[in-house]
């Protein structure tokens, strides 16, 4: 074989080799794009879930703010219903009963929305749930326990809506 034929044969072999490599490249490119698409889909799904979770948290915070205002309103109604004067007239007593009825309706609404009052008397003081306003003298074994509740605390969906204000035995 002469030089010319050798060059021709070499070119043919190179073409065959390229044709052979081309499908492998195509397959690897396809695999690359499929893998990339799968990753993008997974990232988008994670993003969607995160946005939904954040929206839910924002809605819960807004709801907690509103419910907290309702709890404060209930406190005012409770105070109005509990103040008594021995010389009050029948009209004032009727007014008080009306306020108590409104208070009961507010409390029913709060309960329906997931707000629950805390039961604190006799429990150990926990700063996550209680706010100590004062201390009282007590027996040694009752140290650190709640002596009395000064203002009711409330929980909403396992979160503290308002801590209970308490007096603690020292």
Q: How would you describe what is shown here?
A:
- The protein has a domain at 116-170: Nucleotide Exchange Factor Grpe, Chain A, domain 2, CATH 2.30.22.
- It is 61% helix and 17% strand.
- The chain has helices spanning 3-82, 90-112, and strands spanning 115-117, 130-136, 146-151, 154-156, 159-162, 164-169.
- The strands form 2 sheets. It has a 3-stranded antiparallel β-sheet. A 3-stranded mixed β-sheet has the order 2-6-3, with no helix packed on it.
- A hairpin with a 2-residue loop joins strand 4 and strand 5 (159-162).
- Helix 1 runs antiparallel to helix 2.
For the biggest β-sheet, the strand order reads: 1-4-5
State the separation between the terminal residues, measured CA to CA. Answer: 109 Å
Reported by name, the CATH topology of the domain at 116-170 is Nucleotide Exchange Factor Grpe, Chain A, domain 2
- Strand-residue fraction? 15-25%
Radius of gyration: 37 Å
Global structural class: alpha+beta
Portion in helices: 55-70%
Taken in chain order, the helices and strands follow as HHEEEEEE
Q: What would you call the quaternary organization?
A: single chain
CATH architecture annotation name of the domain at 116-170: Roll
Task: Summarize the topology.
Layout: H1 3-82, H2 90-112, E1 115-117, E2 130-136, E3 146-151, E4 154-156, E5 159-162, E6 164-169
Helix pairs in contact: 1-2
